[in-house]
């Protein structure tokens, strides 16, 4: 039997030694393209070498990977999407484009390893992926990162430099109740299109608005800033305008924008349109 996609809450793959007399009666995993959620305890080199064509992989474990088995992931040269839950690795394949860390409780300094991944485009830090109140990137990196999501985290102080996030397009921060400021250096990212804030402090919203204003001063296309506050507005949301004379209103998870645009002292237009944003 040749499997292409294997998705279960949690499972193990057996070692398949090349000289095994039972090899002919074992399942062939060499054509698997999607696997989740594989137990980290079975990520031996033999197992990893047997799934060389996997492109999307999810791994879960309820304890720290003390044996370093996940470092074998470096052999998966076709891997593009990786999700790690309750476990982590210090070595990653070079072709990795999307990485999700969930409940990994890593130090923020660990992200210096992630920053060096040459092709990473999407990074999602979910539910205490990183532990601690301060994030101070110490290396230049995230050179191809387009989307950064930080969700359910106790991050309080975040300092970035001009050497990080050169081509970032979307920054999403959700349920980070202590964070008050997005680094002002984000105003220098001319590719930045969206800052989305949900369940965050009012100070963080003001910080995003300052970035928006700074981009206008620099002559760049100002970033769109979307925020929602269920504590006061329930499911409704508000969106800051991205240009002088624009007023935008956003409602529910599908974002409905009503935009008033002053084109001149004589001509004014009212435009209603719908835009979907990944929440």
Describe this structure as you would to a colleague.
- The protein has 279 residues and is mostly beta strands.
- The protein has helices at 45-49, 111-115, 202-218, 230-233; strands at residues 5-11, 34-39, 56-60, 81-85, 98-102, 106-107, 122-126, 130-131, 134-135, 147-151, 157-158, 170-174, 194-198, 224-228, 237-240, 248-250, 255-262, 268-275.
- The strands form four sheets. A twelve-stranded mixed beta sheet has the order 1-2-3-4-5-7-10-12-13-14-15-16, covered by helices on one side. A two-stranded parallel sheet has the order 6-8. The chain has a two-stranded parallel ribbon with strand order 9-11.
- The longest helix has 17 residues, at 202-218.
- The protein is elongated and about 60 Å long.
